[in-house]
Amino acid sequence: MKKVLLIILVLLLGAATAFWFFVLKGGKKGPKAEKTLVAIKGGKRSEAFNASLQAMLTDYYGLTEGLVNWDTAAVGKYSVLLQSSIDGVKIDELKDDTTGLYLTAQDPIANAKTNVAALITAATLEEKRVVFNQLSDNIRNLLQTLPPDSGVIYWQECPMAFGENTTGGWLSNKEEIRNPYLGTSHPKYKNSMLSCGEIKHTIRPDTSSVQ
Fold first, then answer.
1. Secondary structure (3-state) at 53
2. Of the four, 40, 46, 106, 202, which is 20 to 30 A from 184 by CA?
3. Is 161 helix (H, G, I), strand (E, B) or coil?
4. Among candidates 106, 57, 104, which has minimal Cα distance to 85?
5. Do the Cβ atoms of 170 and 205 come closer than 8 Å?
6. Rounded to whole angstroms, how far apart are CA atoms 16 and 18?
7. Distance between CA atoms of residues 128 and 149, nearest Å
8. Is 114 part of a structural domain of the chain?
9. Start and end of every DUF3347 domain (predicted)?
10. Considering its fold, how many domains does the chain have in total?
């Protein structure tokens, strides 16, 4: 009888251990790890090139904040400035680069130029936000290839930018979420969804590119 009880006790202890390890321990998941986009490493880039990239980002952030605030005038102003600063990115400096940076950067920068032109002519803020989403993705692709020489950039996403379960993304130089799709003056949510969203990726500066 004692032998049977001992066997039962051993089995119970084994089951309890397995339950703790696979269910309790395994079921508790930590926060989702933030992903860092890996940039393509290339040669040295001039101060002028890095300054042109930062100028583009400054205008992009101004456009983003204009959308956050539902400020039509600011959106119009920074769209035009961004069109000029994208044209001003000194991409031709990389023509002789042997790592493929120049060719890799061609599509995203060409697409970004198309996007910002469409954003300028879009009639409403709603239409501009749709194009802004595409523009943001193309600038992100460009920066993944050619990251700036300073400052962390955060790729942030709203899960309901264009309605339930329809994601919209944007770039920010701050961890704080300021949602350009819902913003401060949404007809339905007012400013209650301003912080709706999360950081999905980061783009780290490429200090090795500085001459």
1. helix
2. 202
3. strand
4. 57
5. no
6. 5
7. 29
8. yes
9. 57-146
10. 1
Contact present, 64 and 118 (Cβ < 8 Å): no
What are the backbone dihedrals phi and psi of residue 169, each rounded to the nearest 5 degrees, phi first? -120, 160
User: 106-123, pLDDT tens digit by residue?
Assistant: 999 999 999 999 999 999
List the strands of the sheet with 153-158, edge to edge.
35-37, 198-203, 153-158, 168-172
Report yes or no: 202 and 153 within 8 Å, Cβ to Cβ: yes
Average pLDDT, the chain: 84
Q: Is residue 66 part of a domain?
A: yes
Assign residue 130 the CATH number of its domain: 1.20.1420
Q: How far apart are CA 105 and CA 68, in angstroms?
A: 28
Domain enclosing residue 79, as ranges = 30-209
Parallel/antiparallel/unpaired status of strands 198-203 and 168-172: unpaired
pLDDT at residue 7, rounded to an integer: 44
Cβ–Cβ under 8 Å, residues 149 and 207: yes
Q: Is residue 57 part of a domain?
A: yes
Q: Whole-angstrom Cα distance, residue 196 to residue 159?
A: 8
Higher pLDDT, residue 174 or 26: 174
Which residue in 196, 181, 192, 197 sits closest to 69, CA to CA?
181
**174 within domain boundaries:** yes
Which two three-digit tokens encode residue 175? Answer: 């961890």
- Which of 117, 106, 116 lies closest to 146, judged by CA? 106
Tell me what pLDDT residue 24 has. 36
Q: Where are the alpha helices (DSSP H) in 46-180?
A: 47-68, 72-87, 101-121, 125-145
In the chain, what is the straight-line distance between the N-terminal and C-terminal CA atoms, in Å?
A: 82
